[in-house]
Amino acid sequence: MIQIEILALILTGLGLTASILYYTMVLRNATKTRETQLFMSIFNRFTSREFTKAFERVLSWEFTGEKEFHDKYGWFHEDGSWKREEDIDFDDSADFNMVLNWFEGLGVLMRRGLISSELVFEIMYGGVGHFYRKVEPMILEVRERTGNMILRDLEFVYREVQRLRDESDMFQA
User: What is the pTM of this model?
Assistant: First the structure.
């Protein structure tokens, strides 16, 4: 009689262990699936026609700092005065804000560990570097003037991708 009770306890314990292992595997797979879906959503936006046009347009702009940027592409003149509405190119503003906010959002997701830095590096390392180097002088200028750490997540994306690039054998001769 005691042997049957022990056998029942052992089988119950084995069943519980198997259930826990199965549930752990399902959760792990679900997490990877969600991360993959999130990444593909981000990647689809990055490679969309609208984003690509805006991105290439912004990269083609010439400016040396915040004041020149605003004078040419923003809502202000170099002296800080507001432009008249008819002098503002709202397409410039929309394109710049779309690209800037997209990279900043990507940085938030990376910094919080919701998307793998390695995935971003493997697919988008060139675009991240080109954009950040384009706007870095303006970012540093605004930070110095205001004391605010604006666009820290954009910088995080850039620094993280550069770190992975330096560690990677992908670029070794």
Answer: 0.77
